[in-house]
Write a structure and sequence with these properties.
2 domains, three-stranded antiparallel beta sheet, alpha/beta, Rossmann fold
Length: 288
C-alpha cells in the first residue's frame, strides 16, 4: 500500500522518534518488564521454522527478536516501527544478537507497506492502542496475514488498574488544568474498555478472538527512579513535561511522588499493572 501522511500521524512520529534514545537507554528495563508479555504472545502464535513473522510498533525490539530463533531454519522476522529512530534501535539490537534472519523496516501500522497474505504471524506489543485509527490498523493486520496465520496483540488495561502511569496523568492534568491524555488523541488506555479490543479485531475479520488479562507490575528501586523512567519513556508526556517551567515541574513531581508512595515496600516501589493480551487467527485457520 502507498503510505500517506497527515498532521496527526506526523506529530506522533516526531513524538516517538524524540524518545527513542530514552528507550534505548532503558532497554534492559523494557525487556524485563515485557518478558511475560512476549512469552505469552509467542505461546499464542506458535511460530515454527520456515515461517514469516511481522512485528509492528516494535520500539526497541521485543517479541519479534524473540521469535527469530523459533523460525529458523528458513524463516524470517520483520521488526518494524513507524518512527525511524525506533526502527534503527531494533535493527542494531538484532545485529548485535547475531540474528541474521531479522530485517528492520519503517512501517506504519495503519498502512502496512507489504503485499496481501505476506506473513504467517503478526505481533504487536503495546502499539495498536497508540494509533489514531486502531480499526484501520486491525484491518491491515488481517490483510497481510496468510491463510492459517495467527495474531497476538497486547494493550494496556484500564487506567485505574495501571497506577504506575495513571498517577502521572492525574498529576499532569491537575497541574495543567486540562484532561490528560487530551480528548481525541490516541493514548495507552484507548483500547482498555470492556470488549473494545476484541471488537476491533473481530470487526477486522479475524477469527477465534480471545482476550485475557496479564499482570505486568511496575517495580522500581525508588520514587525518583519510577518518575524519571516513566516520564522518559512516555512519548505523549516527555515533550510536554520538558517544556514546563522548573518550579511547575518540581511541583508536578512532588504531587505525583506523594500519590505513588502508597505502593512503597521495603524493597522499593511495587505498583500494579495489567495488560490485555489478545490471540486471533485468520478466518481460514478457524475453518480448519
Amino acid at each position: 500500500m502507498t503510505t500517506t501522511s497527515n498532521p496527526t500521524r506526523d506529530q506522533l512520529r516526531q513524538m516517538w522518534s524524540g524518545v527513542a534514545g530514552a528507550w534505548a537507554t532503558h532497554v534492559e528495563y523494557v525487556d524485563a518488564r515485557g518478558r511475560r508479555l512476549s512469552d505469552r504472545m509467542l505461546e499464542l502464535t506458535r511460530p515454527v521454522p520456515g515461517e514469516r513473522v511481522l512485528e509492528l510498533a516494535c520500539g526497541t525490539g521485543g517479541p519479534g527478536l524473540d521469535a527469530a530463533p523459533l523460525v529458523e531454519p528458513g524463516g524470517e522476522v520483520v521488526v518494524s516501527d513507524f518512527a525511524p529512530e525506533m526502527t534503527a534501535v531494533a535493527a542494531g539490537r538484532a545485529q548485535s544478537a547475531g540474528l541474521a534472519n531479522v530485517t528492520a523496516r519503517v512501517i506504519d501500522l495503519e498502512q502496512i507497506d507489504e503485499p496481501d497474505g505476506s506473513f504467517d504471524v503478526v505481533l504487536c506489543r503495546e502499539g495498536l492502542m497508540l494509533v489514531p485509527d486502531p480499526e484501520r490498523g486491525a484491518r491491515e493486520i488481517r490483510r497481510v496475514l496468510r491463510p492459517g496465520g495467527r495474531v497476538a496483540i497486547s494493550v494496556w488495561g484500564p487506567r485505574e488498574r495501571n497506577p504506575w502511569l495513571g498517577v502521572v496523568f492525574d498529576a499532569v492534568a491537575e497541574q495543567l488544568g486540562a484532561p490528560m491524555p487530551p480528548p481525541g488523541k490516541p493514548h495507552p488506555f484507548s483500547l482498555s474498555g470492556a470488549g473494545r479490543l476484541a471488537a476491533v479485531l473481530r470487526d477486522a475479520g479475524l477469527a477465534c478472538v480471545e482476550v485475557a488479562e496479564l499482570s505486568v507490575p511496575y517495580r522500581a528501586a525508588s520514587v525518583d527512579e519510577w518518575w524519571e523512567r516513566t516520564v522518559a519513556l512516555a512519548g505523549p508526556l516527555a515533550a510536554r513535561l520538558a517544556a514546563l517551567p522548573p518550579e511547575a515541574a518540581r511541583a508536578l513531581h512532588r504531587h505525583a511522588a506523594e500519590r505513588i508512595a502508597a505502593y512503597s515496600t521495603p524493597a522499593g516501589l511495587d505498583i500494579p499493572g495489567v495488560c490485555l493480551v489478545a490471540g486471533a487467527v485468520s478466518p481460514e485457520a478457524a475453518a480448519r
